[in-house]
Amino acid sequence: MNYRLNNLPERTVKPRGKGLTMVMDKGLSLREVEDFIEVAGAHADIVKLGWSTSFVTPKLKEKLKLYRDADIPVYFGGTLFEAFVIRNQFDEYQRVLDEYDMRFAEVSDGSIEIPHEVKCQYISKLSEQVTVISEVGSKDEKKIFAPYKWINLMRAEIEAGSWKVIAEAREGGNVGIYRDSGEVRQGLVDEILTQIPEETIIWEAPQKAQQVWFIELIGANVNLGNIAPAEVIPLETIRLGLRGDTFNHFLNKK
Amino acid sequence: MNYRLNNLPERTVKPRGKGLTMVMDKGLSLREVEDFIEVAGAHADIVKLGWSTSFVTPKLKEKLKLYRDADIPVYFGGTLFEAFVIRNQFDEYQRVLDEYDMRFAEVSDGSIEIPHEVKCQYISKLSEQVTVISEVGSKDEKKIFAPYKWINLMRAEIEAGSWKVIAEAREGGNVGIYRDSGEVRQGLVDEILTQIPEETIIWEAPQKAQQVWFIELIGANVNLGNIAPAEVIPLETIRLGLRGDTFNHFLNKK
Amino acid sequence: MNYRLNNLPERTVKPRGKGLTMVMDKGLSLREVEDFIEVAGAHADIVKLGWSTSFVTPKLKEKLKLYRDADIPVYFGGTLFEAFVIRNQFDEYQRVLDEYDMRFAEVSDGSIEIPHEVKCQYISKLSEQVTVISEVGSKDEKKIFAPYKWINLMRAEIEAGSWKVIAEAREGGNVGIYRDSGEVRQGLVDEILTQIPEETIIWEAPQKAQQVWFIELIGANVNLGNIAPAEVIPLETIRLGLRGDTFNHFLNKK
């Protein structure tokens, strides 16, 4: 850090077991990736190439190399997994992961409907090949799960081999753990946390108010996902209580 | 594309007669233009330097050259045309187009009031010099045209020489073909499409929900405009049914 | 400018006494700063490294140097001042300003509560070291000051040594001089302007509608702050009446 400030919340350092910032890249150029790494490389733990953007991204191998050379793991969004599965091309998906030398993959069912046992079989199978992150929650606004359901799904996916489970929101942040208004479903989150270790969950929190909410609930070292590249520095200051939004939260706890 | 996925909607390729993506550049630097071309050059068909930003843009000639060298036509926003017309400087506007070697120009009346015959005369006159894109619809929230009026205006402008007609929205997307809420005026769009060939219309659709709406109505190869540079890759995935928003739309049609 | 347009509002030029554009940098990379300077250097008068982002910004000295070499003054956001004060580290804050060779500093009380005399003492003290910009208004939505209070606070801070006073909004623009809806508190602004010279005030106006509102009220050369780097060119066109939003405002005044 550039100067000394006393009484900051303790922040984990990379490689982090918790306090992860997962970033969403939805089409950065090579030079923009370099810029991102310069500015946010110390704070970004893992990068998702959003949904199926990797399909139409030029210079994909060079891009993946830039992230890896900076020791930032990178993976393809879960919608890509789903796009292969719905087309009965899962084997080809596994070959694609190999071809691009991917070490991580996401398993989700936000857009497709598959029995949960089948989803867990995909998790098991892929976890022999890569580190699996799985996502719970639908992109469909009409599908609201009860808390016990979220807990059962998360637990089963962790048992099937997921390294972390992601609590789904869409990029705009209005489904899954959020209400239409973008507000967090607090009762749901509280109940999940009674059963699932918080370091195992990555909360998708693309909006600032959501980031603040989770940091105030869980602390500086909550895992947050779908962070825009330009928001990693702002998020880091929110984690440290150095932006107005959480300034007093951490001071009042001392 | 970086790997093979079956059953994707067919997408036209550049140079496209339909399925155009028109991008709004409101002040990119030269390096940012290079980055944009690297990432989105294969998907961006035409670039508008938004409204009168070209007036205060440094290194304008270098910028225009970057786009042209990448075979991406570029033009000045319609508000610039209007700024010259309202000052009785139309002749000077024509000289400016020549000075900057512009091959395209936009004719609009979003901020000025001119009789429609006069607008069509400008279209005729400019179409001897450049390829003309004309814009229908006012930036004024209080001016709501009936569908038959939209159709008459569009038809007259095409007859006067317009290559394409743009259905106006403001950058924020809340006038013209959209309600205050950003919602599309569906009845209006349906009626326009009964009379005007859809490949002749570019729908301004700066917001994702609007892009999704037009893609679901008209298909992967609808012409869309006022797309932010960083949204061209995301839009391309929406066109292909590879983002959650249109994932099931295209699959269900097979 | 790239071509001649008659009847534009007169615009001050750098270095400006009024008509300032204060830009918020919340984490640009070095290359992005270079790009920003290329595009907007002629229009950006002063840059704030937002709140405490300087704490976690890599290559901070190189970044400050880029701005200074372009003759754009740069300073740390007021929340950083507050972060040092609340920790009883004010002396250290002064040393940090020296270490980074800062010529400007912001004094604010958006997140901390200090008696106004104490705030003014900080302004006096710091104004011996640097040029001070002070900010009036709380980040707390529940703290609404009456107009006479705003005037007294501003006047006292100017007397204590502030070069300019900033009328607070948060980045999102929903506190201080704005209502929850982002709308400006017009009566408040009118009353402030009867007592405080307008060139002494920088109005935080991150949203376009707010920029338009102040430009229509005060003119092309109103001081505006918290402008996003990519919005400086658009703002310049709004100041000149060359974007739809203010197109007719300036013409009607001729």
TrEMBL record, chains A, B, C:
Matching InterPro entries: Aldolase_TIM, ComA_synth, ComA_synth_sf
Pfam families cross-referenced by the UniProt entry: ComA
Sequence similarity: Belongs to the phosphosulfolactate synthase family.
Protein name in the entry: Phosphosulfolactate synthase
